Amino acid sequence: MEATADIGLIGLAVMGQNLALNIADHGFKVAVYNRTTATMKDFVAHHASTPGGLVGCATTQELVRAVKRPRKFIILVKAGPAVDAVVEELIAAGVEQDDIVVDCGNSLWTDTIRREKGYSARCKFFGSGVSGGEVGARFGPSLMPGGDPNSWQHLKPIWEAVAAKVDEQTGKPIETGAPGKPVVGGVPCTAYLGPNGAGHYVKMVHNGIEYIDMQLIAEAYTLLRDLLGMRADELGRVFARWNDGDLDSYLIQITADILGQRDPHDPNAFLVDRVLDAAGQKGTGKWTSVNALDMGIPANAIAEAVFARCLSALKEERVAASGQLQGPNTPPFAGDRAALTDAVRDALYCSKICAYAQGFQLMREAQKEYAWKLDFGTIAAIFRGGCIIRARFLQKITDAYRRNPELVNLLLDPYFKEQITRAQGNWRHVIGLASAHGIAAPAFMSALAYYDGYRSQHLPANLIQAQRDYFGAHTYERVDRPRGEFFHTAWPESGRPEQAVRGSGGH
Ligand code: NBP
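YS: structure for the whole thing
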């Protein structure tokens, strides 16, 4: 087989097929391979004429021979052992040390770090997060590349061509193209993020933020439904209205669409009311939360969103408990409905600011841990289009980090500070109502706890340190002594008089 393709792609499930077509729409010839050959044959037969062209390959040897040098390959298979299996197969099929192998799946960033190092003598392994689902992959995803900077120079023309585009001035996504007619102009939603696992790390945090964004929307929905007794289509109209304001985002827009959807099996019912309330998850929210715990960064709202899905999944237990556990006997809400609707919107916006503050704080810590130099303005900018969390709000985050690239926490940016100062009364009011009416709103509540904790000069950790010293001689620092000096007290339980012992290190 003659080497005519600009790039090879392995894995023709939802993401692989759509990304291959997107690349071909931009005039690049794509050689495609899938483990199950029939899928590849079907795919190539159904898309015989694309601007760049597809080359169907039945084996990895054919695939490697079909791609022009410097050879580039995209892997889009299930994250985990399948990625290593594919890389080994490619190497056995003739991939060489200078060939670039890009894993575009949702791989754990530490796997990407390991793979880049482990394969370095045999190929240039590169990681690139892809967000936007099926439609994003087809017409413009947000792409988060990380790896060897020289490899990036070879990938850049393709990545920038296929990524979603936003308007340079407003940051608004430019409408997706159509098959064979890609978007022209605009700023691409991709940028080199850093070495080894940086791209996959940022993608993971993107997904963690996606979890909390969805949970917050779900809490706004349940509060309005349960406090005001709104029907799904009425709720849909509320979300559609919100989508014209600061909350303008892909997730709010699809929520409005979902709430207006009738059940295909019963046109008198709304589909959302027939969907079982047990949420699934694939693991990226959990990875984000575990990493936050590992690094000691308080991403509590993101973790709360993961736990909320876990609690939802205990459907049978919840049904049984609902018959046994009492809630409050609060009379139905009888206040101003329009004012409450606005208050829920404000609560959602304030909580969202906290959630993003946590996600970006996590990335700030990770760059220290892995010696990356992440550009947060650029990260927010490439989230503006193509990805699931795309939102008007991301222009505000981009602006915040462009104003101050060293910003310690988003909450401290003047715009976000002003937003929370203005809306926190409503936020607190809504959480009070949720509590009084026994409605679970864990993400709203945990975001507020983060806000109040972060702005507290004094937290009760003094008591915790004293307790730790009492039972475990873990020592403590004193408010009237410099940081880094540690003391231990002989507490009364010992029967000896209280006595401070100066030490050099805490436990
Ligand atoms: P899946 O994650 O469902 O994977 C299916 C593909 O992997 C098929 O092409 C399958 O080949 C191939 N595959 C497997 Br499984 N094991 C293999 C092996 N050992 N060797 C070769 N091929 C193997 O596909 P997807 O939903 O398109 O997602 C691809 C990647 O993109 C995943 O990492 C996913 O997490 C990520 N992602 C998905 C989305 C989304 O919205 N779906 C969004 C963003 C990122 P077969 O046909 O022979 O079984």
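YS: worth flagging: The chain has a mean pLDDT of 96.
IM: good catch. Also The two ends are 65 Å apart (CA to CA).
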